Amino acid sequence: MSAGTHSPAPGAAPVGRMIAAQTALETRMLLRNGEQLLLTVIIPSLLLVLFSTVDVVDTGEGKAVDFLAPGVLALAVMSTAFTGQAIATGFERRYGVLKRLGASPLPRWALMTAKTLSVLVTEVLQIALLTGIALALGWSPQGGPLAVLLLLVLGTAAFSGLGLLMAGTLRAEATLAAANLVFLLLLVGGGVIVPLEKFGAAGDVLALLPVSALSDGLRDVLQGGAGMPWADALILAVWAVLGLGAAARFFRWE
Amino acid sequence: MENEPVGTAVRVRGLVKRYGTKTAVDGLDLDVRTGTVTAVLGPNGAGKTTTIETCEGYRRQDAGTVRVLGLDPVADAAALRPRVGVMLQSGGVYSGARADEMLRHMAKLHAHPLDVDALIERLGLGSCGRTAYRRLSGGQQQRLSLAMAVVGRPELVFLDEPTAGLDPQARRATWDLVRELRADGVTVVLTTHFMQEAEELADDVAIVDAGRVAAQGSPEQLCRGGAENTLRFAGRPGLDLGSLLKALPDGTEAAEPLPGSYRITGTVDPQLLATVTSWCAQHGVMPDRISVERHTLEDVFLELTGKELRS
After folding, report:
1. Does A113 touch chain B (CB under 8 A)?
2. Is A1 within the bounds of a domain?
3. Which residue does chain A place closest to B106, by CA atoms?
4. Which residues lie closer than 8 Å to B172 by C-beta, 6 or more apart?
5. What is the ipTM for the molecules in this complex?
6. Based on the domain organization, do B143 and B23 belong to the same domain?
7. Between chain A's N and C termini, which has fewer beta carbons within 10 Å?
């Protein structure tokens, strides 16, 4: 490098370019991580194929895939927005990535925007894949795409808030363990594969969980052909406000 | 810039930072002149990193004022971040990212970044290839972190222990880069506990101990100030040191720690050397292996703090 190479010429890139670059990097990191792919792609796909083809769980009237596909879509949203984001962000915090980016020209709000966009990009890929698999298994979705979209966005917001709250307050190892445990518990008790009616009276409480509201709402539309499931949308909105609010309040960057 | 002396890149006055009951920084003053290299030198736990990270806007002080490029590191963070390069003591990179990928990303966050390929070449990061950050050697991780600090062409860089854990060759490469930065007009603040690093690189050295600056000045100033030098020679055992001392200025000391090995302590200047050699000539002594020992920063540090720098 010749003389004058380092002559100061400071300046931030345009914020749109920064967000685009950050989104691309975050998405690449996510898709490159084997454990994350297991959680976001392989487990939902396997569950969909396994329970649609093997009659282990009583999914009520109609084809099993019509019951399962909405639940697995809800699970996919949870795996990316909550589990994946919590674990990735927890370790970014632990390894000083958030700290270092905090000294870069990228504003914090732009970093969070990029994280959200990266989650949405991943979800689009997941939904495309899972929809393809479900259609191949004979899925016949009902209802309107607008209600589905709104539910997915609200679900993403709710799970992101909870995931970031966990990542920003617990140690990275604790986040890793807790996020996986919550994923597993909600997979079983959140109406994803097992209908909530199987849990008796406890089902009414479980119905208030974000994954239950998302899978139930998606099922109302995609299986039952309902319009907008407002009750489920409201539950998700409350979780989103609480989760994002608590994350904004308690998130520690180091 | 509000009432800043011209040419001051960093000004710290009365900085106090506590963590719980422990006082990490205890009334620290520091001045960094624009365009110079300043080394903050001190043992582990002296408060170096806390001071640097307060200047970087990571921590808010409990007392005192901090001005970086005339601005408040916390309140004016958005304005400062593009202008200041930061090298953390460790970490700061996605564990799954490749070196070139992370560096290209940092470049994209800046308006006029350095040529990334040239910087990779310059710091020998090409050998990292497609290896993920977590599998890079400590030295490679350090050099990447350094590259990330300079890629945005900042006016001021803070380097926290830039050569800790590096082999001598990598250390020299880092020193060369710091010299290039200085030559191109970038202000550099680095922390170190390597004496030689401070002596080689720094225009100014701030010796930090127990959360305060014990002394600040150029390495030459620090080594001159207060520190006495030593003249050693060998000769016939049992010389009459009382007679020698009468010829020497007041305050000079003479000793024979081992038979035939002599040590004169005081202000060792040409006059003193001439006096000693002529005294030897008068007494038929051939002074052998004459050596003058200058006080190093290490001696200065020991005198100021009563501590060895390297623990």
Report:
1. no
2. no
3. A104
4. none
5. 0.89
6. yes
7. C
